[in-house]
Amino acid sequence: MQPETLPVDPEVRPAKSLVSRGGLFRTFGSLVGFLALLLLILGIYILQDTFANPLTAQPTALLAAGFILGLDSVLIYFLMKPHKALRLADARHRRRSRLSNRATRRHRLSAPGD
Predict the structure, then answer these.
(1) Cα separation of 57 and 59, whole Å?
(2) pLDDT of 50-104, one tens digit each?
(3) I need a labelling partner for 66 at 20 to 30 A (CA). Which of 17, 41, 75, 84 fits?
(4) Under the phi-then-psi rule, with left for phi > 0, alpha for psi from -120 to 50, and beta for the rest, what region is 3?
(5) Domain parsing of the chain, residue ranges
């Protein structure tokens, strides 16, 4: 018995491409959120230890904590602000698809009259 397949029309495409549906933020957003939380906890822990024991603390620990907290703040910023870039990319995609649809309509309208 042969498996049944559905007829596929090559002209039919989804409304959104795979790139817009599965971008970097949607793919790695939860992992970056976990990493940002982990870096925040680690940076606060190192700073707390440095302030609790200032005589035994190394200066590199303070620099490392500052670097970790700075990296964490950048990650948190990009976690909170990706929506504007996604909206602009989606608007650009819609604009391009409208322009290409207009061009194909003109071509289709003029072709039968030849």
Answers:
(1) 7
(2) 999 989 989 999 999 999 999 999 988 888 875 665 566 666 767 777 666 555 5
(3) 84
(4) beta
(5) 36-105
